[in-house]
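Re: [help] complex structure
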Amino acid sequence: MINLALEVGKTAAPEATMFWILGPLAVIAALGMLLVKKAVHSAILMAWVMITLAIFYIAQGALFLGIVQVVVYTGAVMMLFLFILMLVGVDSADSLKETIKGLRPIAILAFIGFGGLLVSLIGRATLGHQIVGLDSANANGNVPALAELLFSKYVWAFEVVSALLITAALGAMVLAHNHRVHQRPTQRDLSILRFRTGSLAETAGLANPGVYALHNAVDVPALLPDGSAAPTSISAMLEARGDVIDSSPFQLGQAEESEGEDK
Amino acid sequence: MTSNLLVYLIALPLFGSAILMLAGRRSDKWGHLFATALSASSFGVGLYLFSQMLSRSGSNRAVTQNLFSWISVGTFHVNAGLMLDQLSICFVLLITGVGTLIHIYSIAYMSHDLDRRRFFAYLNFFIAAMLLLVLGDSYLNLYVGWEGVGLASYLLIGFWNQKPTYATAAKKAFVANRVGDLGLSLAIMISFATLGTVSFAGVKEHAGQASTGALTAIGIMLLVAATGKSAQFPLQAWLGDAMAGPTPVSALIHAATMVTAGVYLIVRSNFIFDAAPTAQLLVAIIGAITLLFGAVIGMAKDDIKKALAASTMSQIGYMVLGAGLGPVGYAFAIMHLLTHGFFKAGMFLGAGSVMHGMDDEVNMRRYGGLRKFMPITFATFGLGYLAIIGVPPFAGFYSKDKIIEVAFNMGGIKGVTLGGAAMLGAAITAFYMTRVVVMTFAGNKRWDEKAHPHESPALMWIPMVLLAVGSVASGFIFTHGNSLVNWLAPVVAPNPEHRSEMLKPAVVSIMALVAVLIGVGIAIMKYLRSQVPVVAPENVSIFTKIARRDLLQDDFNEAVFMRPGQKLTQGLVVADKALIDGAVRGVARMTVGTGSTLRNTQTGFVRSYAMWILLGAIGLIAAIWVVTL
Amino acid sequence: MNPANYLYVAALLFTIGAIGVVVRRNAIVVFMCIELMLNAANLAFVSFARINGNLDGQVMAFFTMVVAACEVVVGLAIIVTIYRSRRSASVDDASLLKR
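Output below.
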């Protein structure tokens, strides 16, 4: 695929084909990222845009950047995003209803104005501009040429950026570090607490999920003696995600009925 | 000639004042003696300088002493210098001499007052300031003394400031004096602007080069200053209320010395007034008006001190009239000033003595027949009385008749008017002074049973006797061989030009005596032959009522200056609230309004801030787009 | 084919990213939009490098990637911290600046 992209970059007609297929797709994916409800879907679309951009890089003679884009961005950064999403935002389905009054129409106007101005400026700036191409610059290969620049002309910036990277890593560690103010309660403490507070029923431990003999998965709430579902028997996370199965079909009377029907 | 002694004249009493004020209560025991000693030593220095002066010939008599360079700005140089000439020495001896006598008198008079030391500190301060006034060799130095005596006057009128009315009287005197002081400062400024100098010698030298208009302006401003300090019309209203101060203060400051500072100023500035006839005529007119004004008020007053204050106003009117008559009148104005200093101080001390014996009662309708109880007071007061009404050979006869005579000899309608006013004044003076003496010392007794009239202690009557001697003899001494006129000649240079004498001196004297006799006769008829009611009768003519109200001077000031002033300030308060405060509050309200409007953009939502950034970026790109077009 | 076309794509992507920052409320999506803007800028850099025939643009894009990586690391750490204390990843909930 890399070779294909490189080849595409060298000849005009295939590049145009590639561009006119991938370009609109990238824009559509980006727009979709804006419009979909779930953050996870946004992340997937984002990954697609990034891969598209990696292909564009390679097609434009930036082989090294294309690889780095796939490895660093699509590989590391997007995974980090998804990881954090899993950590905090599993239940985060954005409602697309705007809460700040008047922001959306202004945003649409800004979209048109900003985009229009940028496009028209680029048009004016590049119109009739001589295109040099990277053939001579990449004569000894893209990676050696980049390396030569990085470690001669940009070596100072390179060092500074490395310092920045270390600082950022340290900063992230500091931020993520959860300083414990109180000692973590031991099993003994929890046991004492359970007897001191709450009812005797809770003291024995919460009900396990599942209805024995019928459906004992974790997403089915246990039934209380009066036949209603026990909310404390299943994980709050599952409930929030909407992945809880209704337990009413497994109640005593109905269960017999439904089994009778099956027969 | 220079002399190093001049500064001690001022420094001694100033030192005494400083010591008494700084030492505070610690000096209560000896403060009064200390102050009296310093005042007396200043008098001693004055006498020594006087004797030295006598030993020199006429034009060499003036001595000067340069203390230090006070102001040196560009072309403006003022030295703090002192000058003692023939005119100044008269004042120095009067101030320190009468001042010392009154110090002695006050030791007894104020003996029961807890704040006697403070009183003496102020008295010493007054002596120092007054000496600086008459010794300064430039208008600016004079101005310092001028303000100093104003301050001393304020402090002493309000000495018993625990009484609100007394404090108000002090304030009134101070404010009226400020108006006059403004005139003096303006005169100094005009003098510097036109003549380039403010020293007496310099102004005298350059006065010939200045335009008559400028000199008239300076003269009128000096006259304003004099009316303020000397209680002349139209700034006369404060003097009557100034009697709120202790009686020795009334005698020293408001009869003998400070109030005559205006006369000193006019005589000292003779070179200006001689070159500005309009201003000079104005001086004479003011003097004539005031002498009648004061005399009329004097007729209606029942308060002995206020009657004497009105008389003071009237007598200073004579002096100002004399000073306004030009070179021939200056010497007589000064002569009347000196004789008046003796007899009026003596009478004030006599009034103080009467009050001392009558439990501070001041209403003459509550006196009567006191001559048996206070023989010395009666004798000294009587001698002063004979001097003031102008009975020969007492002092007033020589000085006042000279002024009347010179006024008549001005010639023309001016002479008749001024001379007639002075003559009428003499008759009225005789009337009201007789009234005072008769109501106080003669007739039946009208005081309460509680009062026990008694003669005052020796410390009080000795100064009175000495002043009485002065009232008897001074006139004769000053006129004997034209001594005072010749003495003052180098300073005020009498006009050599021969004047047509409209009336011979003898004729004037006889006319004046007749006028005096008429006045005395009416007063005796009215107050000795008939009973004096204890309570002032109410059913009197409108003229009497007006005279009792000080010829409506306070009502006039109140209606013309105070009420409009109050209205103005009230208006300004409203304007301040509406305009100034309105503007301030408006700015504040506008700021608050703008702030709360702009606050709506601060939603706290990151996304709206991001929107603003985006809009800013759009604006930036739009600008680039336009610029690169 | 004219490489300027890539620039148009980059401009569009950048605009979409900018609007996304404004419109979306989920902090993670907002972050992804910022990444989109950075990527668009990178695409423009690469295109400029090609148009001008030198590799400086590519070096810039490389640096941008590094900086973006730093920013993501710190930003996500902040999001995690906020989430831990406020149980929310919505940027609208962190509107304490107003009060």
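Chain C touches chain A through 70 residues (CB under 8 Å).
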